Amino acid sequence: MADPDGDRRGDRTERWDRVPELGGPPLRGRPPVPARVGLVDAPPPVDDPAEDDVDQDNAAPRRRDPLWRTAARGVGELLVTAGMVLLLFVVYEVYVTDLLTAQRQDELSEDLREQWASESPAARRALTQVEIGDAFGVLRIPRLGEDYTRVVLEGTEEEQLSQGPGHYVDSAMPGEEGNLALAGHRVGKGSPFLELDTMRPGDPIVVETADSWFVYRVLGDPATGDVDADPSGIPGMHVVSPAAVEVVSPTPNAAAGAAPSGAYLTLTTCHPRYSARQRLIIHARLDGGALSKTQYPDGPDALYER
Fold first, then answer.
1. N or C terminus of the chain: which is more exposed, having fewer CB within 10 Å?
2. Which residues lie within the region annotated Disordered (predicted)?
3. How far apart are CA 217 and CA 268, in angstroms?
4. Which residue has the higher pLDDT, 61 or 162?
5. pLDDT over 90 at 198, yes or no
6. Pick the CATH number of 89-304 from 3.30.70.3040, 3.30.1370.10, 2.40.260.10, 1.10.357.10
């Protein structure tokens, strides 16, 4: 059989003809081309330890920071960290606790309403003693807002005050002769008494119980706004030291053992804002007697005073 490539063998170009550097047999009329030596990889250079030692000796020594600069840097970082922690604490105390207390107040209000609805009329009227931590009434202060309501708990420890206003143990109950004394935080934990310094003589403070409403009015002269002009001599508002416990006496500012001269209400909170250095005190007197919730299901007229 004929070779199909036989006629083209002489025309075929070998690879060394195309790339002479690859070497190959000599061609007619052309001297042989030597193979390219550079195609072989050269061995990697070997480091000379002696040269490394010389380079290290010639390198400039690294300067160390002075001790005072290192200490100052450490103190600065510590102060920045402490500042961030303090800032987070303030945000938590002022804002986060307000949200948590508001949720807790909603729960307390719902539980209290259910309790009142399930009690007999006789049990509702028998509000003489309450266990520590139990809710027993609702405080309403129109001056502090149309929707201002705070559930009151028995006790004035932080466990109670973190949930809302607390009732001083052994002080009078709503409507009784003596001094119904309530404490509350000024800032944080719901801030129930944040704007207590805006109260004016004659302002109503309403306390709601299971079956009645009780209206107290801030002492002083409503006509002039003078909180020190009440005929009883008891100021409607004043600032005292934390040690002035006589403000919650049966008769405010009188001896603790003295007989009560009327039915009073006292609100206490920290002063000034963001400080516990002093106490801001509001004194009020009961205006009339108990108002039945049967007669006033939506509350007394005092709730709508502005």
1. N
2. 1-65
3. 15
4. 162
5. yes
6. 2.40.260.10
